[in-house]
Design goal:
The complex is a heterodimer of chains A (226) and B (638). Chain A is mainly α and 226 residues long. Chain A contains nine helices and two strands; from the N terminus they run ααββααααααα. In chain A, α3 runs antiparallel to α8, α5 runs antiparallel to α9 and α7 runs antiparallel to α8. With 638 residues, chain B is of the alpha+beta class. Chain B starts with a helix and ends in a 5-residue tail after the last helix. The chains are: A mainly alpha (226), B alpha+beta (638).
Amino acid sequence: MKLFIYFRMTVNLAMMFGVSVLSLYAQSPVIVQPGAPGQPTKILPANTTAKLPPLSPKDVEFMQGMIHHHAQAVEMTAMIELRTANKDVRKIGVKISQSQTDEINMMKRWLVIRGEKTEMAMPKMDGMKGMDHSNHMTMMMPGMLSDKQMEALRTTKGAEFDRLFLKGMIQHHEGALVMVKDLFSTAGAGQDAEIFNFASDVDTGQRGEIKIMQEMLNKKPKKEKR
Amino acid sequence: MNRVKATFNFIAIMFVIFGCFAVGTQAQGLEPAPKLPAGMTGSNPNDPRTKLKSGVYDAGEAAMGIKHIGLLKKPAAFDIGTDPDSPMVEKALKALGIPPGTPIPAAVKMSFAPLAFANSDIAFQGNRLFMGNFYGFNIYDISSPTAAKLLTSVICPGGQGDLSVHKNLLFMSVEMPNGRLDCSADGFPAGSPNELPAASKDRFRGVRIFDISDISSPKQVAAVQSCRGSHTHTLVPDPKDPNNVYLYISGTSFVRQGEELAGCSDGNPDKNQNISRFSIDVIKVPLASPKDAKIISSPRIFSDDKGKVNSLNDGGSHSNVGKDGAIRIEDTDQCHDITVYSELGLAAGACSGNGILLDIKDPANPKRIDSVNDKNYAYWHSASFSNDGKKVVFTDEWGGGMGARCRENDPNVWGANAIFGLNDNKLKFGNYYKMPAAQGDSENCVAHNGSLVPVPGRDLKIQAWYQGGISLMDFTNPANPFEVAYFDRGAIDPNTLILAGSWSAYWYNGSIYSSEIARGLDIFELTPTKDLTQNEIDAAKTVQVGQLNVQTQERLVWSKKLVIAKAYLDQLERSQALTSSQIAKMRNEINKAETSKNTKKLKGLANSLEKTAKQRKSEIDIARLQGLASILKQPEMN
């Protein structure tokens, strides 16, 4: 208590004599923000709190669209079990299924926390009678397989399934790369740390998987010739 | 009353945010570990670290040989999670139908934006510690580790805030699109979903250079833009040129548009020879005029001798199929981090799909001289040399650091260190080391950044494992690495994986400092264990450096103080390279010499040690015997 009064007096005295209070508190941390190169650094108030960059409608659209996009990839990998015994296809299928299921959960959390819906808002579909949801979505997300392509997968087995699956998944992955490129090409988008990190992972991860699947496809004919 | 309400809301929020996706086995968004692959061993579920109580600041702790001496919590200026009035938190609560101002448990708040304000890498100079953050950096006074304090918080967002320090300059990596030349936290206006282009002259992705002559007011003097930004960078001194330093930039994210930065281009490497991938960037910094720093080359360190830029893409592999039946995932089109050892003219690059060795005698033109792959590796993340340059420790950041990868069913050779021997510029695999304790589903855990601990006669590395804690590894014998000490906390939350844990754990002048992603700056001391004596710790503490950038390795040198001799003796006792009567005799003579200051008898002992060294086979023991002899011949008396 005594110490406190003494302290207050010191501060008051210091203020009375025009000594900067700041210098008395030389030990307390200072918050600063540098300027652009060559520009001065400014001092920010002690009660400054952190701030997130703006969230772009494109970010939300990207996450909602990617959930839908990923869901089709998971649907495709679920067909593997009954349609092929090819070890390589099965292996990459498990890998894709696991990572994309994981990512769907992450994207949903990201959206809910930001008070956004986990599904895309459906645009008005005037003059588009006869077109159902899935068809419309298929058109919207780059690289997604058409109903016809999905049906073809569901009705083949063995080597032909492998070929269609790999071709389809490459097309699907390339679409994801387009979505990432599109995100980062849009003004104000991709600034959120989580979305940046996730989109960067999609880019490197799916690029790598495309390469593997292409090698698997290229390898096939040789095998059959033997 | 309040308490009941808070509890109710906690459950409500947790349910809505995390419980709503509870489907089948994926309860609360957590992925259970897949089955352990046949023939592999998982992490140890019977370790005291496995089932620690979770909590933000009240989590359970377990330690062996490491004493926690302090935590400086992340300043409020770097944490939106502690601000219930933030628009984002408000918006989320509104969406969940919860009145604004309701108290929210810290763990839930942390899940709102765990990465945007994450603590990252650390650099040291004198009594100052510089801790990077995705939102800027913080400068601490560590002249007394038990009373460390924050001096300056610098707001300058852009992630991930990898730092290096050299004389009056501080270098900082920026890679995210919210990075601005003027350090503003405003980012760029949200725009409409289809507004093009994103290009802006105000955006900054690359390496910032600050003048830190005034520690309370760092000034930005230069900002060197690069095509993929800078995920990490490494300070590269030129032993022949004291007037310039170099920076090797590792960019791992998307290539920016040519409209934003001239010369940047993406595409297919077979068609576009100028593609801004498959290279690193080299910045030259004139120390007298840092504002003139610029990129002077972008060496194609993955090319073959025919000039094919993407020749090195063996890929990491364990979850994947290639020539040998392994699927390969990572394309080697980037390095994640590079460690240089300029005295040796060498650098070790951890480059996504491969580990590589570079000749850096000409720092502006690094050349690849060896590369390795490993069937158990997913993502080559970082590298460190042993002090003698005869070993390299690589790390595998399987899952990117955001995933739980130390569970009972996660193989102990995935997401682990790989220790390689290095002879005649050739890397040869020795063994793996993974922090041995099984961690929970809600703890992100994988090998991450660490530094050497300067115990003479041994190779020791203290290392961060995210929420797996920190672990001290002995890799003196690359075929048989083992754990010497550890510290670990429980998860932030038991049901939800919230990004946290140690990003970097480094030894600096006698203490261990760890950048806890969510919680703040942790400070530790080593204490003796059955595998580490007080003499060895004291010997390590004698090594004092003026500056430390861990990825810029400088040779550790020990004095000839008798405490170093005592450390060697303890090691020779442990390895039974000397008999117990020999050990007792030497200890006795050393103690006597310390009091009498008469070192005559020690010289006699040195001669007999040199003879013994000639009869021994173990290179490790021979080095210790010779090290001990050289001190006893000419001890440095206090």
